[in-house]
Each structure stands twice: as structure tokens, then as C-alpha cells.
Design goal:
The protein is an alpha+beta fold. The chain is built from 7 helices and 10 strands. The chain has 2 domains: about 100 residues, Phosphorylase Kinase, domain 1, CATH 3.30.200.20; about 120 residues, Alpha-Beta Complex (Aminoglycoside 3'-phosphotransferase, Chain: A, domain 2), CATH 3.90.1200. Helices cover about 35% and strands about 20% of the residues. It has a 5-stranded antiparallel β-sheet with strand order 1-2-3-5-4, with helices on both faces. Strands 6-8-9 form a 3-stranded antiparallel β-sheet, with helices on one face.
Length: about 220
């Protein structure tokens, strides 16, 4: 990896003693991890211990990300076996447990579908005081600003913004939502299912995560249509 890329990361690694990580020495940079459009993530290791270092996008607020909200939510999820352990998190970067496994396939068996549904039910039962309700209008507006121009017509932008307003104006009780629950953010291995990348999480619509990950037929089967 080039010095241009690794030098800022090495400065972060120098602070490894601040982390609640199982490292006995300064971790080394292994490689940049694929995926992730918002931030840059790296695999780091020291001895047999590995972790993920996520360097946060400095323009996160323009993407609808509130780092303090993410940190608060991750603290409330710390006891959940299906969430990677967070060793350190601030406005600049996050260090978390590295989960070996494969991403969720487009087609999964019913047992896996049921387990994901159970995890979402468990997630929605978590109560966090003093978190503002997620604004779909504002986040749709930020989305339209990011892709405005040749990629997004004004009529389509108006449709998206109107949809966000409709969701906000409906009568629903906000629950804890992941808000980015796609196959790439679900990891399967012999120990179970893990959900990663919680930066868009917030108190949102109870159907949102189900709509993101399940087909219409699956939603009816799990009683969330």
C-alpha cells in the first residue's frame, strides 16, 4: 500500500493503546477492504488479532450521517452477539471486530430469513432516550443533492422528496432501524449472522428495514407487509 494512503492511517494506529482492543502491540495495516461508498475501511492486525479500521468521511453530515448518533446506538448494541464489538469510535474513525464470513446471498433459505426477521424484532425493542426521530424528508433531500444533475431529473427528485414527506407525515411509532440493511451489510459464518455498518441507524419507520431486505412475499410470510 502506498505511503500516501498508509501515512494518515499509521498516525491513527499510533493511538492503539486508547482502544479497548485485544492487541498486545501496535497493529499493522494489512489491506484496504472492498466496498463502502461513504468511508474507507482497512483490515489491521497485531499477532493473531484482527480488526477493521474505518476512516470516516469528513463530509458525513452532507450524507445524512450523524456520528454522535451512531456512537450512541453502538453503545446500546454492545451486548448483542450479532453486532461486531466496537473497540473505539469518535468523529474521525472507528475500530471494530473483524468478522470472517460471507455476505448474504440474494437468495437465502427460510431459516436464515427467519433469523434476520428475529434480529430485526429484537432491534426494534431496544429503546434509546433522547434520539430524534429520523427525517426521511431531510435524508431524501440530501440524496437528491448528491446525485443532482444529469443523473437525476427534477421530476424524479420531486417524486423522491414527496415520498420522504409522505413517510414523515404518516402515523407510526419510531423504532430503532439500521436504514442500510442490504446484503453487503449482513455477514454469515458458522457462528451466526452479523449486521455491520450502523452509521445510518436511527429512530425510523418500523417497516423500513424489512422493505430493504425482504421481498413482498417474504414480508407477508413474516407478518410485516
Amino acid at each position: 500500500m502506498s505511503n500516501r494512503v498508509s501515512s494518515p492511517v499509521n498516525k491513527i494506529l499510533d493511538n492503539w493503546r486508547r482502544w479497548q482492543a485485544p492487541f498486545q502491540s501496535k497493529p499493522q495495516l494489512v489491506k484496504q477492504l472492498e466496498g463502502g461508498l461513504t468511508n474507507i475501511s482497512y483490515l489491521i492486525e497485531a499477532g493473531s488479532e484482527r480488526a477493521v479500521l474505518r476512516v470516516n468521511n469528513p463530509d458525513a453530515s452532507k450524507l445524512g450521517v450523524n456520528r454522535q448518533t451512531e456512537i450512541t446506538i453502538l453503545k446500546h448494541l454492545a451486548s448483542k452477539a450479532w453486532v461486531p464489538t466496537v473497540y473505539f469510535a469518535d468523529q474521525t474513525y472507528l475500530v471494530s471486530e473483524y468478522i470472517e464470513g460471507e455476505n448474504l446471498h440474494t437468495t437465502v433459505d427460510k431459516n436464515t430469513q427467519q433469523e434476520i426477521s428475529n434480529l430485526l424484532n429484537e432491534l426494534q425493542k431496544i429503546e434509546i432516550a433522547d434520539l430524534n426521530q429520523f427525517s426521511y424528508r431531510i435524508n431524501c433531500q440530501l440524496l437528491c443533492q448528491r446525485i443532482a444533475g444529469d443523473y437525476l431529473s427534477q421530476s424524479t427528485a420531486n417524486y423522491i422528496l414527496n415520498l420522504g414527506c409522505q413517510i414523515d407525515n404518516q402515523d407510526w411509532r419510531p423504532v430503532l432501524c439500521h436504514h442500510d440493511l442490504m446484503a453487503e451489510n449482513i455477514i454469515l459464518n458458522g457462528k451466526g449472522i452479523y449486521i455491520i455498518d450502523w452509521e445510518y441507524a436511527g429512530m425510523g419507520h418500523p417497516q423500513f428495514d424489512y422493505l430493504r431486505i425482504f421481498t413482498d412475499e417474504q414480508k407477508k410470510e413474516f407478518g410485516c407487509a
